[in-house]
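Run log // design_07
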């Protein structure tokens, strides 16, 4: 029996609204879904929701730089990993051994909501990688991983320095846009560090008002 009190007697036609609320709970569960990097690298890594957040903004940036539609890139980015709520995230080293029905996971997650057809179509577009926006999202997905690996390298993790050849292969063979490759090159150069936004930004230390 649910601990939640039954506050309202709902009419029969509220069944569709129940599906919407179930979806709202499920999509929120992305905050609690770890990505497989966390298990493999034994590090505190971004969960599915956190990953999608940065990918969305990266996709918008790349789309703007490529002359594509940033709004469309943003909604594709929001949907691109929703399959990982019901299925799971796999690293490149796990994928040869496992097969997941990602499309069914997305279909079942959105089933019964007004978003069902819309979001499934976006997911398929992302997987097909035939539109400029979907390519921008895929580059953003890759770049988020590169950024996070750089962040944990700053914390002392040695993984990134051991896979330099793989990283350059990704740069050559996996990034689809010129803007994505340019962002990768800036990350790889080390010119900008993970904490520069904090260390080099405006602060009360710099303007002499700290403690005043």
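design_07 sequence
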């Amino acid at each position: 029996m649910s601990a939640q009190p039954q506050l309202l007697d709902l009419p029969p036609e509220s069944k569709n609204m129940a599906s919407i609320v179930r979806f709202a709970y499920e999509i929120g569960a992305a905050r609690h879904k770890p990505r497989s990097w966390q298990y493999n690298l034994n590090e505190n890594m971004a969960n599915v929701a956190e990953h999608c957040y940065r990918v969305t903004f990266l996709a918008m940036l790349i789309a703007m730089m490529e002359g594509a539609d940033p709004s469309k890139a943003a909604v594709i980015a929001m949907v691109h990993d929703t399959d990982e709520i019901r299925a799971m995230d796999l690293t490149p080293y796990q994928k040869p051994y496992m097969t997941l029905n990602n499309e069914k996971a997305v279909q079942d997650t959105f089933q019964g909501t007004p978003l069902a057809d819309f979001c499934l179509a976006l997911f398929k577009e992302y997987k097909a990688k035939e539109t400029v926006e979907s390519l921008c999202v895929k580059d953003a997905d890759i770049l988020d991983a590169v950024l996070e690996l750089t962040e944990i390298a700053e914390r002392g993790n040695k993984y990134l320095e051991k896979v330099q050849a793989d990283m350059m292969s990704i740069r050559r063979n996996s990034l689809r846009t010129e803007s994505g490759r340019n962002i990768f090159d800036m990350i790889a150069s080390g010119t900008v560090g993970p904490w520069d936004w904090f260390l080099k930004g405006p602060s009360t230390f710099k303007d002499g008002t700290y403690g005043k």
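The longest helix spans residues 132-154.
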